[in-house]
Design a protein that fits this description.
single chain, alpha/beta, Rossmann fold, N-(1-d-carboxylethyl)-l-norvaline Dehydrogenase, domain 2, 2 domains, nine-stranded mixed sheet, 13 helices, 9 strands, 53% helix, 13% strand, globular, NADP binding, oxidoreductase activity, acting on the CH-OH group of donors, NAD or NADP as acceptor, HIBADH-like_NADP-bd
Length: 306
């Protein structure tokens, strides 16, 4: 039986229950928040219900009465749609609610979304995330956030429930997005380099499991090599992070670099490999599929090849 006078749980809406959003929702439920969630995929809604959340069919339904609305979709266009489109969250959100925008997008898009939310009487945090599905499920993400102090104050407990580290980067939208794009440049390049390296090992006739063991204990290791190359070794390209994500993100980086008159040749070369993978029909597969592109170009047989 609940104690008389017990404080009601803070209501949080999570819009987008993919590998990251669902993990964040589950972390929030463990922390005692009342969580509603919205997604197009019924299995994701079923999993949310099993964890104790309230599944909803539209962003508006999820956002009604929510103090914090966390948007974990793919890009700026989807973020705009779930907030302001048909059955969007913003028209029904309580005045003063905080929109936590976690999709990876160009800084200018984050700034524009912030202005629209503020014009509607809502607070806004530009708060992209990093860490992958496993860390999302464990409440150990990294959040790169910028926005007004009032938004941080209201959304702070939510961010702390989903993250092991919350970086407060500034008082305006766009800063968080900029830092995330620097991260995505490195992530995209590191995945491409990891796939290039493990496929070269195959071309040289080396045992790939042994190479993985050696590299992960050596100076050439990276988080992405350690995380993605097991997908190659298993021949399993079930998407945890798809090729198309880096087609988008490295494309944004090229646009930003061109605007700033800044050379980004390594990121540009990596983008070409993601485009090759997408053009070969692997766009929705795991981003470790770049190894398969290298393999096809060089006649290498990787685990799982027929």
């Amino acid at each position: 039986m609940s104690d008389v006078g017990e404080t009601p749980a803070i209501r949080v809406a999570v819009i987008g229950l993919g590998s990251m959003g669902l993990g964040m929702a589950e972390s929030l439920l463990r922390a005692g928040f009342a969580v509603s969630g919205c997604d197009l995929a019924q299995p994701a809604l079923d999993r949310l219900a099993m964890a104790g959340g309230r599944p909803c069919t539209t962003p508006a339904e999820a956002a009604e009465g929510a103090a914090v609305i966390v948007v974990v979709v793919v890009n700026a266009a989807q973020t705009s749609d779930v907030l302001f489109g048909r059955d969007g969250a913003v028209p029904v959100a309580p005045a003063g609610a905080v929109v936590v925008s976690s999709a990876t997008m160009a800084p200018a898009d984050a700034e524009a979304l912030a202005r629209r939310c503020e014009d509607a009487g809502l607070l806004f945090l530009d708060a992209p995330i990093s860490g992958g599905a496993k860390r999302a499920a464990e409440g150990e993400l990294t959040v790169m956030a910028s926005g007004a102090e009032t938004a941080f104050a209201k959304a702070g407990p939510v961010l702390e429930a989903v993250a092991v580290k919350v970086h407060r980067l500034g008082d305006r939208a766009g800063i968080g997005a900029s830092v995330k794009m620097v991260n995505q440049l490195l992530a995209g390049v590191h995945i491409a380099a990891a796939c290039e390296a493990i496929t070269l090992a195959g071309k040289l006739g080396l045992d790939l499991d042994t190479v993985y063991e050696v590299i992960t204990g050596s100076a050439g290791n990276s988080w992405m090599f350690e995380n993605r190359i097991p997908h190659v070794l298993a021949g399993d390209y079930t998407p945890l992070s798809s090729v198309e994500i880096f087609v988008k993100d490295l494309g944004i980086i090229q646009d930003m670099a061109r605007t700033e008159r800044y050379p980004a040749p390594v990121a540009a070369a990596a983008l070409q490999m993601y485009l090759a993978a997408a053009g070969s029909g692997m766009g929705r597969d795991d981003d470790a599929s770049l190894a398969r592109v290298y393999a096809r170009l060089s006649g290498v047989s990787l685990p799982g090849d027929a």
